[in-house]
Amino acid sequence: MFSDVLEYVLISEEDIQKRVEELASRINRDYKGKDLVLICILKGGVMFLSDLTRKISLPHSFDMVGAESYGSQVVSSGHVMITKDVDISLENKDVLLIEDIYDSGRTLKVVKDLIQVHSPASLHICALLWKEKEKRAHNVPIKYIGFKIPDLFVVGYGLDFNEKFRNLPCIGILKKALYT
Ligand code: IMP
Ligand code: MG
User: Fold this and answer.
1) Residue nearest to atom 9 of ligand 1 (CA)
2) What residue numbers bound the domain in which 126 lies?
3) Inter-helix orientation angle 46-55/13-30, to 10°
């Protein structure tokens, strides 16, 4: 089904769903009795948030922040633009940031700083993917990690190339012909 666009599948739909369930159980345990708010970083974190929120059995809220960094390139532009702030109050809430991928760390640094301004009781990060890198622009502590992956450009399950391929239910490596 994905052979037209993907060189190969890196993480299957089944493996993603299984891992999301495991992360949700840990979050259920760790946030018992807390006032949990999930904050999704648009747009890449949308699929992850929508699966995770439905597997968390604790009462909680969610909201979104908009951050753009990639433009149409497969390498980070180095600039992070906040395009949307949260709509709900985060004061004294236990905030968990939901991000698709920890790459250069720029997006997470900027979004973390933005959330701190809203005075949450606690602030942690849950990233579906962690790219193995020798050096990052910012080292940000990640509390929950879905998968560690090699330093390759991936698409699917929210991650895009030029705003496309977010809809794939798995994560894979894009065919070279599609971006050269
Ligand atoms: P960072 O600011 O460099 O850490 O990049 C974070 C953002 O860049 C993520 O939220 C993604 O939207 C995007 N990104 C980083 N790596 C990839 C990738 O391999 N494929 C698609 N998008 C990526
Ligand atoms: Mg992107």
Assistant:
1) 101
2) 13-150
3) 60
Please say if the pLDDT value at position 71 is more than 60.
no
- Whose Cα sits closest to atom 5 in ligand 1? 103
Query: Which residue, among 64, 134, 72, has the nearest Cα to 99 in the 3D structure?
Result: 64
In a domain, 168, yes or no: no
Residue 19 lies in a domain: yes
For 125-168, write each residue's pLDDT tens digit.
999 999 999 999 999 999 999 999 999 999 999 999 999 999 99
What CATH number is given to the structural domain containing 146?
A: 3.40.50.2020
Q: How far apart are CA 120 and CA 124, in angstroms?
A: 10
CA 46 to centroid of ligand 2, rounded, Å? 11
- Asked if 103 is an active-site residue, the reply is yes
C-alpha 62/C-alpha 85 separation (Å) is 13
**Contact between 146 and 19 (Cβ < 8 Å):** yes
The DSSP 8-state label assigned to residue 159 in this structure reads: B
* 102 assigned to some structural domain: yes
On whether the pTM is more than 0.85, the answer is yes
CB-based contact 76:56 (threshold 8 Å): no
- Percent of the chain exceeding pLDDT 90 equals 88
